[in-house]
Prior knowledge:
The protein contains two helices and three strands.
Amino acid sequence: MPPKRKAEETLDERRHSNKRFESEQKTTSSSDHDSANKDEYPWIRRIRLDNFMCHNKLTVEFHQYVNIINGQNGTGKSAVLTALAIALGCRPKATGRCDALKDLIGPYADRSIVE
C-alpha cells in the first residue's frame, strides 16, 4: 500500500477530530437537557420604558414564542425595538436612530429608563 499523502493525512485527522467532537457534544447536550426543563429557554418577558424617545411610560409584556408589534405610523413601534437593542448592548449609532444615548431621551425629560 502506497504511503499517504499530506492531504489524505489532514482529512483523516479532521474526520477523527469531528467524531470526537460529536461524541463530546452528545454527552454534554444529553446531560444539559436532563438537568434543565426542556420547555424553559431564556426569553425577554417585558420591557419598561420611561421617557424613552416618544414614550413617556410604556410597559410591553412579551409572549414566549412570537410577538408582533403593529400600529399606525409614528406610534413608536421602532422605539420599542430600539429600546430592546439598547438594553441588549447595541451601540446607539448602530441602531440607525441616533449618535449618542442622550439623543434617545424623550422630549421635556433629563433622563430615560429602559429595563
